[in-house]
């Protein structure tokens, strides 16, 4: 590994950046975690690439300071798994932006779904499997040891995607509004959604969201409400939960098919806040429906921080020994179930 001022330079600078937060970690060649940092969300479509990378730089600076290091360069290799790196052209542009910062000798940028996949694979397993992330949005990625991948554009309705926390909340609002004004079928969502925000009706909630009395970003709070109403037996709410399960299965099955893994024993890793909540109506349906299409797939839910996956991908790129990966996992326990 390289030397900085006579001190061995860390092997990997791992970065995982989602829409709401960014984590960075400096990793030694032996898998030790030398320092970590956190900053805000990574949103290049909103603020532009350079301003978004400035947010990454805040997390990186905190990790460097915690490790007692100086530079740049900070590490031999930068492994960055980033939200909004949905298309190859976006990955390339972001990789160029990170290289200009001079943080590492080499730089690799992946969509953040690959971090969830790598973190959720069994210790010592080859990088082979599929991950579906259902958090604020929904995405899927698959990977084979030879480097082949399967992925989706994940640009929302524009690219055929449905669901995630934001999508589920908007759908729940749509059905609740129509139930209250008579255009749609009755649903308990019409009372439960406004009640969550202390409003007496959907009309009052809609007005608050439209005029800014209630920040639009708070609609994500409605996802647990939707699941609670579904668990109580409401048919409309149940239909949304079931559709989300079927969408997750469709993405996983298509990715497995593209990689010729449908008939293989292979990990399917689920990540993100919606699946991590382990609602039986969602997760049990995912397991049952995926078993119909990929009977040998092994489903797990990963709760480990995705920066673990970014760090493991970095160690993979450097050809680190298994012992380094095992040591890294002791710092970021692989919470998979």
Description:
Helix content is 46%, strand content 19%. The chain has 13 helices and 12 strands. The protein has helices spanning 44-47, 49-67, 88-101, 113-120, 164-181, 189-196, 202-211, 222-231, 235-258, 273-276, 280-293, 306-317, 322-331, and strands spanning 3-4, 7-8, 12-17, 22-27, 33-39, 75-82, 104-111, 129-134, 138-143, 149-151, 266-271, 297-301. The strands form 3 sheets. Strands 5-4-3-6-7 form a 5-stranded mixed sheet. A 5-stranded mixed sheet has the order 10-9-8-11-12, with helices on both faces. Strand 4 and strand 5 form a beta hairpin. Helix 5 (164-181) packs across helix 6 (189-196), helix 8 (222-231) packs across helix 9 and helix 9 (235-258) packs parallel to helix 11 (280-293). The two termini are 35 Å apart. Mean pLDDT is 92; it is low at 1-7.
């Amino acid at each position: 590994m390289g030397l900085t001022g006579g001190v061995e330079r860390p092997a990997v600078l791992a970065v995982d950046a989602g829409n709401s937060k960014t984590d960075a970690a400096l990793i030694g060649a032996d898998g030790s975690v030398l320092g970590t940092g956190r900053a805000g969300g990574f949103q290049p479509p909103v603020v532009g690439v350079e301003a978004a990378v400035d947010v990454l730089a805040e997390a990186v600076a905190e990790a460097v300071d915690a490790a007692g290091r100086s530079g740049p360069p900070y590490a031999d290799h930068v492994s960055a798994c980033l939200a909004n790196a949905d298309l190859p052209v976006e990955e390339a542009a972001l990789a160029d932006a990170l290289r200009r910062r001079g943080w590492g000798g080499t730089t690799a940028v992946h969509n953040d779904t690959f971090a969830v996949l790598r973190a959720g694979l069994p210790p010592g397993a080859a990088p082979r499997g599929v991950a579906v992330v259902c958090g604020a949005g929904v995405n899927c990625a698959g990977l084979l040891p030879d480097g082949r991948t399967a992925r989706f554009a994940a640009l929302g309705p524009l690219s055929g995607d449905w669901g995630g926390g934001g999508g589920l909340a908007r759908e729940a609002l749509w059905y609740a509004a129509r139930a209250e004004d008579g255009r749609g079928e009755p649903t308990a969502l019409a009372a439960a959604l406004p009640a969550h925000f202390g409003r007496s009706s959907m009309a009052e909630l809609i007005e608050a969201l439209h005029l800014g009395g209630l920040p639009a970003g708070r609609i994500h709070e409605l996802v647990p409400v939707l699941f609670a109403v579904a668990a109580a037996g409401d048919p409309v709410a149940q239909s949304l939960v079931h559709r989300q399960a079927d969408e997750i299965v469709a993405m996983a099955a298509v990715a497995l098919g593209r990689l010729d893994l449908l008939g293989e024993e292979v990990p399917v890793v689920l990540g993100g806040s919606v699946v991590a909540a382990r609602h039986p109506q969602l997760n049990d349906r995912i397991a049952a429906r995926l078993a119909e299409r990929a009977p040998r797939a092994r489903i797990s839910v990963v709760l480990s921080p995705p920066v673990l996956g970014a760090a493991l991908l970095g160690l993979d790129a450097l050809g680190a020994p298994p012992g380094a990966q095992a040591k890294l996992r002791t710092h970021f326990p692989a919470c998979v179930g």
